[in-house]
Amino acid sequence: MAVRGWMLIALAAAGWLSAQPAESAPLLYRIEPGYTTLEFDVENMWGTFSTTGSFSHFSGDLLLDLTAPQNSHVDVTADAASIHTAWDTANQMLVSGDYLDPAQFPTVHYVSDRVDQLAPDHVVLHGYLTLRGITRPLDLDARLRIVTTNRVSVPSRTLW
After folding, report:
1. Which element (helix H / strand E) includes 125?
2. Helix (H) or strand (E) holding 88
3. Which domains does the chain have, with CATH numbers?
4. Which of 152, 121, 123 is nearest to 17 (CA)?
5. Residue 93: exposure state from Cβ atoms within 10 A (0-12, 13-18, ≥19)
6. C-alpha span between 160 and 152 (Å, rounded)
7. Is residue 143 within 8 Å of residue 156, measured between CB atoms?
8. Per residue of the chain (160 residues), what is the pLDDT tens digit?
């Protein structure tokens, strides 16, 4: 499946993120359903429409270092068969052998290997996305938003 245009991975991790002292340690969050959403928005190659959706089964870790964001890290794996959009025809296509093919490639995986801080709440996650057993570099432009005292949102988009 070719991923073009925008991709959104929103990680709303549970935890306590009220004001952190300057010397606070990195925080490790479990990325799991019920506490996190894993969403995407992919434009078609002509840019005329986009498909939004989510994965319902996934897991991973978010290491969040608020004092040194370059030390942060994300590693998330989604069950490819758990993909869902608002369009039933798209759901059937996405789990077919022409797209994700979860019977042969059961997971989708993203792992960051470097984080560049652009502003206090703005980073670029450099990492790798594996789809259908093929791993390619994928940079995500991400912004940190403290949603409540026990929730953080990290919306991001691809950089191309």
Report:
1. strand 122-131
2. helix 88-94
3. 12-17+24-158 (2.40.128.110)
4. 152
5. middle
6. 25
7. yes
8. 334 333 344 443 333 233 334 456 788 888 878 878 888 888 876 778 888 999 999 999 989 888 888 899 999 999 999 999 999 999 999 999 999 999 999 999 999 999 999 988 888 999 999 999 999 999 998 887 655 555 555 655 554 4
